[in-house]
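The instructor's notes for this session suggest beginning with a concrete chain rather than abstract definitions. Hand out the sequence below and ask the class to guess, before any prediction is shown, which regions might be ordered.
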Amino acid sequence: MRKLRATKQQVIASALIVVLAAALIVVGVYGLSARSTESGLKLLEDMRLQAILNTAGTGAVDAYIEAEKKAATQAVRDAGGGMSEIREASAKAAEEAAIKAEEMGIGAVDLSSIDTTPLGNALNELAEAQRAYYKEEAAAQAIYIEEHAEEAAEAAAEEAAAAGPAAVDEGGDDMDLEMVEETVDLSGFVATEEMNRLSAIVDEKYAALCEEIKLVFTALDDDVLSTFKPTITGIVAQQGDTFEKEYDRAYAASGMMPGLSGSIMRQGRTMAIAGVGLLILAAAVLFYIPLVAKMGVPRLIIGLFFILLCLLAMILGLSLPTQLSNTLVRLGMNGVLVLAMLPGIQCGISLNLGLPIGIIGGLIGGLLCIEFEMSGWIGFSFAIAVGLLISSVTGLLYGMLLNRLKGEEMSVTTYVGFSVVSLMCIAWLVLPFTSLVMKWPLGQGLRTTIGLQSSYRHLLNDFLSFKVLGVTIPTGLLVFFALCCLLMWLFMRSKTGIAMSAAGANPRFAAATGIDVDKMRIIGTMLSTMLAAVGIIVYGQSYGFMQLYQAPRQMGFLAASAILIGGATTSRARISHVIIGTFLFQGVLTLGMPVANALVPQSTISETLRILISNGIILYALTKSGGASRG
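After discussion, reveal the predicted structure:
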């Protein structure tokens, strides 16, 4: 057996990368630490002062020109001149005053030519007052958003429902999280008493800064400076400020050249993160052979890509804890649907792309929960019970069909799944549901998107949830997913589970040992279908909505993508493949879209990336499935 050792070239390449990474980390850490030193604070203060003086200088020039125009106008009037002479004199005076102002440097003041201490002190006091105000504003808005979250959810559901069935098109039939945005409208937000008090302090500090500015530009008065308040306070501080944001804002307005030390301070965080990324790359290069042997090339590439997205999110200023929180939510909400692939693969029907058969049963269970006005844990349990009952029957019929079409399972599951979804598009229009939550206000049929606010929305997500380093852990959701994985693990080690796996691995040998292969295939198909029913209920409670009509059509492909990326093949799968694959797949989708939007604002690259990832993984797996074998 060949030893899995790194080659000489790998060692050399890894060492060079480590040296480069160490240099970047050292320089980056120096830049980060220099920000809080006296020189770093002075650099930022000087840039902001110059930016403010540039803004005030523009007003000083305008004030000087306006004064010259008024003087010329008054002189013509005193001489008895008419309107045409006044206009001509005013225009000439403005032109001459602009030239004179430039020659005299009225609007240009260099920091080295004045005593910046009083001006700097006034600036820093204003900055502190503004930061205190923005901190209070953010806290008050957070409370407001929390109080009005339910209203936002209902409004989002109404908006999505009003779009009609045609709104669920090819780009949105995977029931993605971003399809319905629950955004709280802050137009009704009212400033608190504390905000008003802090705002008054900001006004006082701005007035003190203006007094210092008037000592530099004597042509300015309070009326002119009041017009510059939004610009100057915007330069000084803004909500959600970081060193990078303050630096970029001041740099753009001041035009100062901060030099090498300033650039290192600005890019310190980026260089340190890039250095960490290079260390990870060096480890991947050094241990490439054993990593590939253990993980496989696709999983290694996706894993490194996920790490790259995490690093890019930090560099681009995105909230990594928020993105990781979303990834954990997606892990829990999609995990059971991905787990539904496992019994299908193990029993021999390969990837069960007919998951919509079970999903329909779960949706009906959720609809009956709303119809009977159930809520909370009772409603959630009722929806699961009904979904399991319906999907067990449809799973039995589905398994019997697949037994008659052995060897063509993947094609059959795809066609059957699509056919059931299309058939249910008619059923959703004629089923006798009466709840106003589900029905269209006018006409027949059920809405496309149905909110779960009155039933079991976020029931698992919020249960015992807590935060660690800013990352929200959806305890209930993850525990439920873990419980499903545990039950499946126990089943696969039971007598029936072992027989089912044996029937899927080698049907002829299993039949020779007395195992009823067709029965085992039906059991696996039923389990897969029933897990799909449970999975869509878990998905819906986390998503906050149920979507009907074409929405479930592609969910089988997404589940297949996740389990394949976790290391499964079309003939072999484990619980670990489900967990790892779901985390990597959903993590890449969660981080990929905001990172892509940050890199290329106002583009559709994030949607393109989502399609490439989900469909590309399936394509890769299918091209390799012919030679897959059980291990």
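Then share the key points. Residues 12 and 495 are 52 Å apart (CA to CA). The mean pLDDT is 83.
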